[in-house]
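Q: My labmate handed me this sequence with no annotations at all. I'd like to see what the chain might look like in three dimensions before we decide whether it's worth expressing. Could you predict it?
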Amino acid sequence: MDLEKKRKIRFNTMAIILIIIFCIAISPKTLQNDTFYTIKIGEYILENGITMQEPFAWHKNLEYTFPHWAYDVFIFLVYSLGGMTGIYISTIALASILGITMYYVNVKLLKNNSISFILTIGTLYLLQPYICARAQLITFILFILTIYFIEKFLETRKKRYAIGLIIIPILIANIHLATFYFYFILYLPYIAEYMIYILAYCNVIISDSAVQNIKKKIKKQGETEELLEKLHKAEERYKKLKEKEDEKINNPYKIRITYNKNIKILIIIFIICLFTGFLTPLGTTPYTYLIKTMQGISTKNISEHLPMILANSMQELILLVVYIGIIAFTKVKIRISDLFMLAGLILLSLMTRRQASMLFLIGVLILNRLISELAIRYNKDTIKVLDEKLSKIISIIIISILVITISIFQFKPKMNDKYVNEDSYPVQAATWIKENLNIKEIKLYNEYNYGSYLIYQGIPVFIDSRCDLYMPEFNKDTYVFKDFLNINNMNLKDVEKKIEEYEFTHLILTSNAKFKIYLDDHPEKYKVIYPVDDIKDENFTIYERISKK
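A: Here is what I predict for the chain of 549 residues:
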């Protein structure tokens, strides 16, 4: 084994181990609210199948699309085997797979180790808010693989990459169909580059076509002085136009346009993948789910769907400054496909703050390419020298100490965390409800953020974080989500009318809820039944509605 191969193996081993350690440090122990209903839905699917009916809210005849049914089943199976500890371990495992995949793809596409490792650790740090027991963690892995398969197919035209590209949207349609459309967005920069190349060469193509037509005439009619003269002029014109366009493309000022002969086959793969959404037990839901969601009011009322404010998003702002600085103030030339991809990701992030995760995830490849080109432009051996120096034993020891130290600081605040945060979820209150109330008979009002925990405890809910379920776009004449917002924020002139409409018998509220003030001001209508004397709960209050006689 030669020295360079040993060096790469040594560095890659270190990188994988440190990525796993870092992922352990940044993975949250406390479960996120969606995880609670995910457990119960997975259990329900295994017992009843995909019924397309909602089983956990006390509203009647609600249809449910089961948008991540395969992930729900996976999480329930993990929970059955290892409880909440099992879910925590699965989150660490998926985060580690994401980190290793990100590093592998960067190394394979950009041909460097040290820069890829540094950027992978940095990207994982930025992705911390998105690392949790949700389906998005698997789709992150699938999206980074999509870019890898696209790039490698364009480079090699090997069938295995085409097969991978067809399998991925099938997985997405069953694991996290809300992101089904995003898979196709990842193709668009490459297709757009091809279209721009065609437009740039439009005159050349037309000129070449004219040459070919004259040659066909000569073949049919024979060589005449007139046709030979026309052919000579057409060839001269074609040659000049081609030289001019080649000069523009081969020596661009800032933006590089390249033609890849495999792009036409990639477009065929793209078209085939458009039909993979039917390979799911959910019918046409992969094609309609996102459209219906965007038509609803949830995008204007749920924090992760709201537009990003750059002034309050320092990490994203710094990243944008880095991109702009490299592109505008250095001699680096960016691929037009990368420019389109970057512009699209920035636009999506500004429109919806949760899409910042895609900017971090996919943007790292673009940033790596820009940094690598910048390093090579100033010294062609920079990357090779850097990889050699950082793969030395002393360098590996220093890097390991540094990453482990950062990991300790990341993990330390989470060390004493519980799986369920009792400040956010009604742990004691849910137990009290099951022991003291007939959950089959009551109609409980609850708030959005902890409805999923009540589902986990087997208590029928008014609403939970599956907001699509409670909107008219998914269930005709259902305005539960809108009514919740109005009740909880006290935006109704006649709250009692709405309470009467839903026939609430009991209400559970957090201590800082606006609606709680109204209930406390009407003791003749609403009686506090929890917390009781022997239970101390400063976070939740349960009211019983005093019936009219």
